[in-house]
């Protein structure tokens, strides 16, 4: 016998460890089925939303990461979730989705979280949306206002920062530095829900979104921005603050159209799609700002909040949340597919192919190594 008992034991352990790798993979697949589900039977509190994001980040740590991106006036933490397919490739273009800018539009955070669930838990079905693209979702950009809307004044729309006297709040979607205070007069009234703030980016919430946008633009990763609102049942695209069309108006419109038509086909709800300034232009919107700094595609997706001829203002009954959120996801995913078609990432695809080749050759070498080890072990044991 060429080897002692200790060596044989080491070889046995090696074989077991190889087997263990496969077992771990199987157990991993089984574990996924036990994931906590998004509860669409209720309107979450902000803490409830953060709990759900924490659970996802914990259970899918290989492809999901949370970032703290700021603090609100009332010191609530602003969080985003970055969703990847877990291939480890960095620098992919990003689709950035933000919800809940207007506090009373309770359906929009539900829709954002539903999109998160589809992309994270439903990765297999939506793998094409994450192959060369990452997603960043901010499910609630205005938690102060949302919490106030839930607990004090259902119709509240703005942030909760003080404006002097007994007037509070700035309209987040008038506070961006693009055509600021252009349009109707109420934007200058600190006691109105249209108040655009004391200056552009006066609000920590808008500054947080701005910084994310800017970083994506600076790193060449800005593809599409979607801000979720309700309940105009329309896909709006820039400009909002002026009536001239954008340079890529045709593409902007086609992407909007693909979302509107997909939702109509899925649920029968008629969505419009149009340049936002079609009626009365006004300034300070996030969709204009995103477009102005370099996102080629930028939208305000106004959800429907209606079913079977009934409209529910900003608060559809909880029994309808799942299907309304699903409707919005049909629109968002259709828009993403069209965006990818219009703005393919050639370098990313090349890198992806290289990465796949690299990964498959690594896989083959690993398998050959495993087989050689097993053959050696069998030879030794048989002597
Ligand atoms: Zn809104």
From TrEMBL:
Q: Does the entry feature the keyword Signal, yes or no?
A: yes
Instruction: Kindly give the InterPro entries that the UniProt entry links to this protein.
Output: CARBOXYPEPT_ZN_1 (IPR057246), Peptidase_M14 (IPR000834)
Extent of the signal sequence: 1-26
**Keyword entries, A-Z:** Carboxypeptidase, Hydrolase, Metal-binding, Metalloprotease, Protease, Signal, Zinc
Domain Peptidase M14 as annotated: residue spans = 42-339
A GO molecular-function descriptor: metallocarboxypeptidase activity
Q: Which GO terms describe its cellular component?
A: extracellular space
Identify which residues the record assigns to the active site: 302
The source's superkingdom equals Eukaryota
What Gene Ontology terms for biological process does this UniProt record contain?
A: proteolysis
Q: Which cofactor does it need?
A: Zn(2+)
Q: Which family does it belong to?
A: Belongs to the peptidase M14 family.
PANTHER family this protein is in? Answer: FI02848P-RELATED, PROTEASE FAMILY M14 CARBOXYPEPTIDASE A,B
Q: What is this protein called?
A: GH16610
Task: Please report the organism this UniProt entry assigns to the protein.
Answer: Drosophila grimshawi (Hawaiian fruit fly)
């Amino acid at each position: 016998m060429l080897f002692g008992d200790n060596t044989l034991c080491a070889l046995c352990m090696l074989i077991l460890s190889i087997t263990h790798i496969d077992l771990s993979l199987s157990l991993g697949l089984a574990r996924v089925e036990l994931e906590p589900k998004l509860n669409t039977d209720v309107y979450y509190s902000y803490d409830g939303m953060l709990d759900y994001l924490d659970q996802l980040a914990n259970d899918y740590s290989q492809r999901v990461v949370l970032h703290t991106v700021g603090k609100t006036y009332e010191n609530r933490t602003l969080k985003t979730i970055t969703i990847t397919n877990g291939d480890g490739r960095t620098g992919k273009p990003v689709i950035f989705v933000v919800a809940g800018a207007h506090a009373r539009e309770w359906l929009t955070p539900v829709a954002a979280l539903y999109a998160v669930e589809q992309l994270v838990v439903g990765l297999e079905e939506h793998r094409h949306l994450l192959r060369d693209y990452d997603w960043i979702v901010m499910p609630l950009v205005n938690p102060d206002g949302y919490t106030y809307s839930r607990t004090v004044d259902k119709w509240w729309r703005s942030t909760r920062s003080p404006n002097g006297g007994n007037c509070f709040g700035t309209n987040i979607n008038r506070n961006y530095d693009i055509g600021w205070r252009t349009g109707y007069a109420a934007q200058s009234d600190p006691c109105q829900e249209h108040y655009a703030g004391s200056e552009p980016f006066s609000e920590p919430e808008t500054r947080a979104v701005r910084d994310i946008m800017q970083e994506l633009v600076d790193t060449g990763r800005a593809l599409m921005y979607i801000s979720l609102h309700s309940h105009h049942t329309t896909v709006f695209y820039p400009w909002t603050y002026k009536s001239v069309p954008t340079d890529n108006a045709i593409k902007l419109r086609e992407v909007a159209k693909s979302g509107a038509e997909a939702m109509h086909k899925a649920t029968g709800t008629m969505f419009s799609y149009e340049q936002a300034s079609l009626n009365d232009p006004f300034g300070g919107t996030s969709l204009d700002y995103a477009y102005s700094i370099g996102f080629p595609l930028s939208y305000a997706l106004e959800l429907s909040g209606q079913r079977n001829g009934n409209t529910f203002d900003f608060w559809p009954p909880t029994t309808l949340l799942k299907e309304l959120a699903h409707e919005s996801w049909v629109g968002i995913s259709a828009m993403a597919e069209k965006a990818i078609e219009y703005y393919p990432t050639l370098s990313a695809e090349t890198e992806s192919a290289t990465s796949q080749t690299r990964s498959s050759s690594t896989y083959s070498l690993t398998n050959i190594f495993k087989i050689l080890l097993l053959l050696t072990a069998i030879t030794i044991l048989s002597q």
